[in-house]
Amino acid sequence: MKNIPWQDRPDNCNDIIWRYSENPIIDRYHIPSSNSIFNSAVVPFGDGFAGVFRCDNKAVQMNIFSGFSKNGIDWDIDHKPIQMKTGNTDMIKSDYKYDPRVIFIEDRYWITWCNGYHGPTIGIGYTFDFKEFFQCENAFLPFNRNGVLFPKKINGKYAMLSRPSDNGHTPFGDIYISYSPDMKYWGEHRCVMKATPFEDSAWQSTKIGAGPIPILTDQGWLMIYHGVVTTCNGFRYAMGAAILEENSPDQVKYRTQPYLLGPAVSYEQIGDVQNVVFPCAALHNIEEDKLAIYYGAADTVVALSFGHISEIVQFTIENSL
Amino acid sequence: MKNIPWQDRPDNCNDIIWRYSENPIIDRYHIPSSNSIFNSAVVPFGDGFAGVFRCDNKAVQMNIFSGFSKNGIDWDIDHKPIQMKTGNTDMIKSDYKYDPRVIFIEDRYWITWCNGYHGPTIGIGYTFDFKEFFQCENAFLPFNRNGVLFPKKINGKYAMLSRPSDNGHTPFGDIYISYSPDMKYWGEHRCVMKATPFEDSAWQSTKIGAGPIPILTDQGWLMIYHGVVTTCNGFRYAMGAAILEENSPDQVKYRTQPYLLGPAVSYEQIGDVQNVVFPCAALHNIEEDKLAIYYGAADTVVALSFGHISEIVQFTIENSL
Amino acid sequence: MKNIPWQDRPDNCNDIIWRYSENPIIDRYHIPSSNSIFNSAVVPFGDGFAGVFRCDNKAVQMNIFSGFSKNGIDWDIDHKPIQMKTGNTDMIKSDYKYDPRVIFIEDRYWITWCNGYHGPTIGIGYTFDFKEFFQCENAFLPFNRNGVLFPKKINGKYAMLSRPSDNGHTPFGDIYISYSPDMKYWGEHRCVMKATPFEDSAWQSTKIGAGPIPILTDQGWLMIYHGVVTTCNGFRYAMGAAILEENSPDQVKYRTQPYLLGPAVSYEQIGDVQNVVFPCAALHNIEEDKLAIYYGAADTVVALSFGHISEIVQFTIENSL
Amino acid sequence: MKNIPWQDRPDNCNDIIWRYSENPIIDRYHIPSSNSIFNSAVVPFGDGFAGVFRCDNKAVQMNIFSGFSKNGIDWDIDHKPIQMKTGNTDMIKSDYKYDPRVIFIEDRYWITWCNGYHGPTIGIGYTFDFKEFFQCENAFLPFNRNGVLFPKKINGKYAMLSRPSDNGHTPFGDIYISYSPDMKYWGEHRCVMKATPFEDSAWQSTKIGAGPIPILTDQGWLMIYHGVVTTCNGFRYAMGAAILEENSPDQVKYRTQPYLLGPAVSYEQIGDVQNVVFPCAALHNIEEDKLAIYYGAADTVVALSFGHISEIVQFTIENSL
Amino acid sequence: MKNIPWQDRPDNCNDIIWRYSENPIIDRYHIPSSNSIFNSAVVPFGDGFAGVFRCDNKAVQMNIFSGFSKNGIDWDIDHKPIQMKTGNTDMIKSDYKYDPRVIFIEDRYWITWCNGYHGPTIGIGYTFDFKEFFQCENAFLPFNRNGVLFPKKINGKYAMLSRPSDNGHTPFGDIYISYSPDMKYWGEHRCVMKATPFEDSAWQSTKIGAGPIPILTDQGWLMIYHGVVTTCNGFRYAMGAAILEENSPDQVKYRTQPYLLGPAVSYEQIGDVQNVVFPCAALHNIEEDKLAIYYGAADTVVALSFGHISEIVQFTIENSL
Amino acid sequence: MKNIPWQDRPDNCNDIIWRYSENPIIDRYHIPSSNSIFNSAVVPFGDGFAGVFRCDNKAVQMNIFSGFSKNGIDWDIDHKPIQMKTGNTDMIKSDYKYDPRVIFIEDRYWITWCNGYHGPTIGIGYTFDFKEFFQCENAFLPFNRNGVLFPKKINGKYAMLSRPSDNGHTPFGDIYISYSPDMKYWGEHRCVMKATPFEDSAWQSTKIGAGPIPILTDQGWLMIYHGVVTTCNGFRYAMGAAILEENSPDQVKYRTQPYLLGPAVSYEQIGDVQNVVFPCAALHNIEEDKLAIYYGAADTVVALSFGHISEIVQFTIENSL
């Protein structure tokens, strides 16, 4: 457990999740080539933190970059994108890489991302040191996005959430889980949870997708996810939470009917894509009951928000669909 | 006649309609459960004002809430949505309620709203005290929105404006009028006015819909309405005015070619839906020639604007399509 | 009861509904001006039959024409469209008329059709002799199609089925019922039945609409209707049946999961619109347990089919969704 | 090797593939419940043939049925759909089943089909006797169609072609290959071949999908496939061939620029979906150089066509894109 | 003037245009490589006729082929597409060629067609002998189709009708005229006539396009054209006529409200694209008052129809919009 | 050469193009009737500058207005739109005018704009004094936008860039060049450059269009252009540069892979259309190596940016696709 970034809840705030007062923590022009930096992943590493960042360059090409930080807030991001070496396969085509997630399992840091292979699908790679990276077989056929690994094997197998999609700005999307004995072949696909009927919870009625690596709590897996509603002027992305059964994570125990955090401040409402709150990573300290959620804002910058894990779990139980 | 909210026109302003300097008057988080409060209706009531407010909660479920105010600006809104009792029918399904209008006719306050009955249609209810509410039969078959009653019977019958639509973010929409002898059965449907050819007045070329309850002037009924243009990045809602024949309100005498108020300040341009000015209610003082128009801004907050009735009428006549 | 058109079921046929061997009974060029004649209505009249026919002319303008027949099969159709006189209203705009239904109630023959009034809605008219016709107020606001009257008042009021739609080739559509004390004002709108989930009964999963005038049986109202499925090459229209509660016809007692008749012969599969079976009228003889269903085929010609009422009712009960 | 169905090429015919003169071999009403029978698979079995047939019933629900034939032309199809028992998994949801393929590998007959699991994906099952069937895990996440197994392991692994799609009438589609060590977990996904640029070969420019089980020839795997062009009046499906590298079947050696068989006779041009030729199975006799291709016609019936394997291979080489 | 193909009007026929009894005159497989032959042009040549034919090959690549005939009905079509030499420009890209028109002006036969240059536009070429062909500059920027030359200069300039479109199955389209002093530079673009409002003449309400070379009559230019209506199952193409002012052909004097010939027989209703009648050429004999119109049927074959010029002109005047 | 507007690059800025610190230079309400002023053109004139401005009025009708400035920053814009006199043609219809460009060639100032003639096309006019304006024939058939003249004849002919489009918010668009001997007839159309594959340079992957008048440099013509990407919430417009061959300007020598300036400040991100940077004019001083680019921001205001010509050229060469 680390000294994760933290700010106490503001005095006049009753929200379960609150924003960091110095947001955004990473600006769109944080590295020389970037047009925008958002939807990125961080993990504890050494005596600080490491991360994999989505930096779209000024040609608006999407790629992932490694970075390091002492405090989880101030980040050194490499000016060059990650160069992959071959992992469990011959090197395969990768037209683009975006929306990474990172997690340590057993002996190494596993990275998943949206990989451009004749359309978006889930790329898998690993690193031991965030300097040398190895690319493995894609997990699935296209078209897929938001591949998120569980932080440990479940029933002896690796488990991954993902959201099958189409080859455009997909207007639908549900969360599935798949299992693998070896990080190479995947199967036992199950639907975990679906977008909601508009009347029940409109903010998550168009599509949903897993966000940070799920966190094991005494109630089960806490899964922070994004939900999307289609307004007459486009998509609006907000953040919610669900609790999945520990040993059968395709079983949803609870799921927030209200969102936890929605676009309401300028860096979330204005940018390359308006009205986007997109969580991709979280740092947690179970002992101190703290959660720091990193999220992309307006597809332009990286922002940070905080919450108490116990409160989020309690809120999810009490406000479940 | 009341002391309606008022601010004189700013010195350097030549506009027919001007904004309240302390806008928005109701913030998106005005009540604990709300994600947004907008498109709402107010009327004089007792020695102050009462209103019916559209408050979408944080699950983005749409519902209507009652509220009271001494000055028409500072509002106490109930934290629970209106619970309807049966009016002239067995209670019917109501998946959602939004965009209310309110008017006193004869002995009670009639409320209309967009009611979710297998899609949007026009719900009707009444109250005597804004505490107890009674729900009647829907006026029309789906799909319909923006049902607005006239403040008195016309030729012995209730009269209602509405905008037939489809079951989505309707890309068309004209204003019709219908009549009823009893607020239960409706007929004599007539087209009042249609969206304009793009070249004639683009801001109202996609769809139009009635806003506040029409106001009887010596020129006829003053109908404030919204118009929509489709830009390459979505809809843009602005506000105009028309004068309808007093005894044959399906006859349009005058109609503004220019808009009266369009999205141009941040709370109108930024929010859950960008670039929306959507009038739903107005308080008027004929003697003092004052009009206070309440409008939803960016589908997120309630704002207030002012004008002199005589100037609006004159402008409509002089700038008519 | 009349000698309605009839042919016994062919020997090798096990179907509940079978086709007339001399179909189509009315060809597309049956009158000099016509491009197509289809979706038409007939009733017993005098010692024979009268009808109202949809004849699209060679400019493909849609209008309705009266006709007479001794045997219900060979028809004399007027070469000029019906000229309406004013009924219960000033004459209203009618850009086009199509898909008529006819029924005798109390003292006259009532006709409903899809009437072009700023888009499709339900026109109402009446005649005593099929020579002089009177046009009344439209029943509803646009957009609506397939308005079908019940053959007698229900609970003291006229009752009409209809299918709210949009202003194009509507890709959705459910059946509603509305009531009127006077054939002028309509209300008490209720949803009767909806298009089905694709997996349950695909042939009626896109939209549905009432066909002939419902027939009162000892099980309730027998409503023949059309259902539509969207294939990758367009819509396909077939015919089914439902039984509605006699005094509460918004209550569906039974409804066919399989279709009764689908496009399978050349005059149904080929024409101006491929793969259309669209029932609009039926002649019945309760004593002889006979039903003769008239349907438009491929939006081009009029065809005839037969069935035993008791068998249809039984089949509907036994194969209900 | 069997006495597969066969007819010599007609005298005046120069085509590589020709139709059976008695087509269609299975009519839409071949079993009592069926609306249509098409896109079906056959294999040699015992001293005759067995098959798995797509029969849509008159509710237009899609399911698969077993059948047997002595000569491959006259078929006894079970009147009830196949009831699956659990194979390598707990029984999973299957909203519908369609477009089966069948092949004997090692010790049993494997069946793949389009399985409805929250959208279309590839179902897998097996049988030893075409009486008792066992359903396994779906191969992939939705959305996918046209899963076709190779008839033997390649490099020690099962291999399957498939066409990732979306959840509707997908307007795109390329052929991929995936591998599995155990028929349960799949990976090593590779793109095999894509729809063509319109100018190069329009008939296969919208989407393509594998058809019968590939046949090993001395030039490599002969893969018969369907291609689709989008006309202004919908999709048109035709049949082509490709030769894949024997040990690296993601490598395309040759691929027909012209189609081999396109919709040109009435049972292919008229039916529930016009202009469809959709091959799903083939019987071959290498010694006699004969191929009998079964194909769905107009999504309504099953038809048969013939060709000499050597000629097809030669034509593919000489007319390759 | 020639002995153009001719058949008298059948006895029981009252139509202005009637079909050749031996239609289609050119089958889809008329040459070995062809998938379909349609939308083609013919002219008097030598003691017989010559033509330029659209033959799509079995890869469904579109190209134009020359052909000759003694009687205008039996055609020898070259088995290889026309190879162009450079005319008034360096050879330009031509991804495809389709829908040719041909006319003799001054000293040579000019050919126009839809030319694939980064999308469809109007290609121009000429020949003296139908053996050697020369390709000139495209007349216009993309996107355009149905370029049709007038048979002589008007006010000293070449004149061409065309239909600006988009890069797909364009759902709109009006007829324009442009002028050129030299067949290289074009200008003075004027709108000639537009698709009609649906209510006025639905068959030509989606798009229209010029067909054969206009014919000068004593009333002005007789322009045969196609019109398109959008049914729920796709486009339907029919044929009409207009009379243009002789010296100001952007002035429409008369235009048929009804169509002259619509898809109503099997070779027009069934084929690669259903329900298409598409005129591209006409042979006329003014003295004998005969017109022979060649048209593509169902985008599959070439058919022939006949009419008396005086009757067509008279009908157009009497049935004008 | 003039004293064009100028501000040195800010100290901490490394960008090739930088914004004027007092942007926007022209506000949306700069003249009494305007709703927005943007996408406008300026040229040196007399001892100052003249311009043609797109001012949409409050009916959101699009028109062009003349204006004058001493310093190129503070502008007097006429309160009435330009009234055209006849140039080289009878006066033609002009439903609207927008997005003007202006350039002096030989003896006069030529103006091009998007002219509403049955849809958008390229209007041409000229003036000698910016008081009296003459309208000529449209250059092309509809549909077209972004017509930009070269500042001198090329190979003896006028040359114009343009972007063929469709009649709506066109989702595609490439840059073409056309030539004219006389500003009346146009031909020799060539494709210059196309939108890019998404993976190569996403910001210009939907459509592109020429901006200011090209500037001749020692490397060829410097063409500033806009590119558009389609996000899930609409279009985003940014600015890039290309170098065209001096005597064959359809040959692209270099083209920026990264954008030069994208929407990143509030007046570019918020307005009637969010996220628009749209260059329409530039003033240059070759000796001082200065370029001042005028651009419309958010379809609402006019903004100004600066760069050194040599740096832009160098950047384009070094960062070319």
Brief rundown of the structure:
The structure is a homohexamer of 321-residue chains. The first copy, chain A, has two helices and 22 strands. Chain A has helices at 266-269, 309-318; strands at residues 18-19, 34-45, 48-57, 62-69, 76-77, 84-86, 97-105, 108-116, 120-127, 133-135, 144-149, 158-164, 175-180, 187-193, 207-210, 215-217, 220-231, 234-244, 252-255, 277-285, 290-297, 301-307.
Describe the 3D structure.
The structure is a homohexamer of 321-residue chains. The first copy, chain A, is mostly beta strands and 321 residues long. The first copy, chain A, has helices spanning 266-269, 309-318; strands at 18-19, 34-45, 48-57, 62-69, 76-77, 84-86, 97-105, 108-116, 120-127, 133-135, 144-149, 158-164, 175-180, 187-193, 207-210, 215-217, 220-231, 234-244, 252-255, 277-285, 290-297, 301-307. In chain A, the strands form five sheets. Chain A has a five-stranded mixed sheet, with no helix packed on it. In chain A, strands 15, 16, 17, 18 and 19 form a five-stranded antiparallel sheet that branches. Chains in contact: A-B, A-D, A-F, B-C, B-F, C-D, C-E, D-E, E-F. Strand 14 of chain E pairs antiparallel with strand 14 (185-193) of chain F.
